[in-house]
Write a structure and sequence with these properties.
Elements lengths: L19 H7 L8 H8 L1 H16 L1 E2 L9 H7 L10 E2 L2 E2 L5 H18 L3 E3 L5 H12 L5 E5 L15 H5 L1 E5 L10 H11 L3 E4 L10 H11 L2 E5 L4 H5 L12 E5 L10 E5 L4 H12 L5 H14 L2 H23 L3 E2 L8 E5 L7 H10 L2 E2 L1 E4 L6 E6 L1 H5 L4 H16 L4 H13 L9
Parallel strand pairs: 1-13, 5-6, 5-7, 7-8, 8-9
Antiparallel strand pairs: 2-3, 4-10, 9-10, 11-12, 12-15, 14-15
Length: about 450
């Protein structure tokens, strides 16, 4: 896609919002169009904050693995009059009148999702990835049931048994992990734990595992103990859509995912399953865990599914993986140690201990250079590492050469050495050459 970059705001203190004058000078946003002008007239204070966030995204390096830049079409749909429509229920069986057109919207979204992922059934209403997982559990489990999932320290999500989350309070979770020598999932441990605990469900999925899971192995273990197999594909689902990662749908009873991240749609969730479980899943989403569908988001999901079905998106997904591997090699050259020795996906996990740093300090130094990423636990020991991904930078149009440059900048920022200002200037120059809403998606 292409658009005119945003007019830079005047210099100001770090972290401060643009002035009202700066917002007024900006005019229509390349992705929001004239809707931004309406916001500016109605609420200049909020318009300034939105402008500041837009500038932050465009002038730094966005390496958070769960983030991406949507297309202008997705953004336009999110800001459409569909946000005004109440639509509890499902197409043809709503609890509100006037749903004839939004019924068509949801059917389009559902059909596109089924085609894209080869699923017999899709529910496109979940408001988030967590909501999608909650619906999967509600469809298949009862409070107190035993569930086998990746341990939180080894990369499991909050919904995989955290005591602070509904999952850890309502179900009895048993955690499997990764091997200390390779960082790869220990399938023999998964099998042994499944035989010992006889779980009602096995969850395959992680927030920080950079390799492709062996879905066939999980299916075999689940069948052996009579368990459902739930795949939480929040991170890899966009790569699946682009043919750059294995598809879990043929192996899983239920697949939960987000529609943002690599998939590059709106923030939201999706549940995929076979026809046998369709009614259970739908009733788990509505009325059990959610009320009315957010039809503007459902429509934006439809747009994203349509975009993901194109050859351009297939090429994009493969570039994301190539960029992650190039960035991983660059980070290793800077002295960082990569979990599992590399990646098959968009995701990298790096240990900064060889640089005599802890993850919190490393993240602060990188933030000071406008390099934004996350930290996560490392599987063995108490240390934490850096978690980063290449989806957003790839959307901006960066390639493997830029990834090598990013790796060098990241290494320089971590070492400090009095070069903080120079590194930040180089980051701004690199980001400025690839503005998010001028690059081709």
């Amino acid at each position: 896609m292409s658009a005119t970059p945003l007019t830079p705001a005047p210099a100001r203190a770090a972290g401060a919002a643009p002035t009202t004058e700066a917002a007024e000078q900006a005019g229509p946003h390349p992705a929001w169009g004239h809707g931004f002008e309406a916001l500016l007239r109605q609420d200049p204070e909020l318009a300034g904050l939105l402008l500041g966030e837009t500038e932050r995204q465009a002038t730094g390096l966005q390496l958070i693995a769960a983030e991406n830049f949507t297309s202008p079409a997705v953004l336009a749909t999110l800001g459409s009059p569909l946000t005004n429509k109440y639509a509890e229920g499902y197409p043809g069986a709503r609890h509100h009148g006037g749903c004839e057109l939004v019924d068509l919207v949801e059917r389009i979204a559902t059909d596109r999702a089924k085609t894209l992922f080869g699923a017999e059934h899709a529910n496109v209403q979940p408001h988030s990835g967590t909501a999608a997982v909650l619906a999967a559990y509600a469809a298949l489990l009862r409070p107190g049931d035993t569930v086998l999932a990746m341990g939180l320290r080894h990369g499991g999500h909050l919904t995989h048994g955290s005591p602070a989350n509904f999952s850890g309070r309502w179900f009895d979770f048993v955690g499997y992990g990764v091997r200390e020598d390779t960082g790869l999932i220990d399938y023999e441990q998964v099998r042994a734990l499944a035989r010992e605990h006889r779980p009602q469900a096995i969850v395959c999925g992680s927030i920080s595992y950079p390799r492709h899971p062996d879905y066939a192995a999980f299916r075999e273990i689940a069948d052996e103990v009579g368990a459902y197999l739930i795949v939480d594909a929040a991170h890899p689902i966009g790569l699946v859509a682009g043919g750059a990662a294995p598809n879990p749908v043929p192996y899983a009873d239920v697949v939960c995912a987000t529609t943002h991240k690599v998939l590059r749609g709106p923030r939201g969730g999706i549940v995929l399953c076979g026809a046998r479980l369709a009614e259970q899943v739908d009733r788990a989403v509505f009325p059990f865990t959610q009320g009315g569908a957010q039809m503007h988001t459902v429509a934006a999901k439809a747009v994203a599914f349509g975009e993901a079905a194109t050859p351009a998106f297939t090429a994009y997904a493969h570039r994301v993986v190539a960029n992650a591997r190039a960035l991983g090699a660059a980070l290793a050259a800077q002295g960082l140690v990569l979990a599992t020795g590399g990646t098959d996906t968009h995701l990298l996990v790096a240990d900064v201990a060889p640089l005599a740093l802890d993850a919190a300090t490393a993240r602060r130094r990188l933030a000071a250079a406008a390099i934004v990423l996350d930290v996560c636990g490392l599987a063995h020991g108490t240390a934490r590492g850096l978690r980063l991904g290449t989806a957003a930078l790839t959307t901006q149009g960066m390639g493997e050469a830029e990834m090598r440059h990013v790796g060098m900048l990241l290494g320089a920022a971590l070492r400090g050495e009095g070069r903080e200002g120079q590194v930040r200037a180089e980051v701004a120059d690199l980001a400025g050459r690839f503005p998010p809403y001028r690059s081709h998606m």
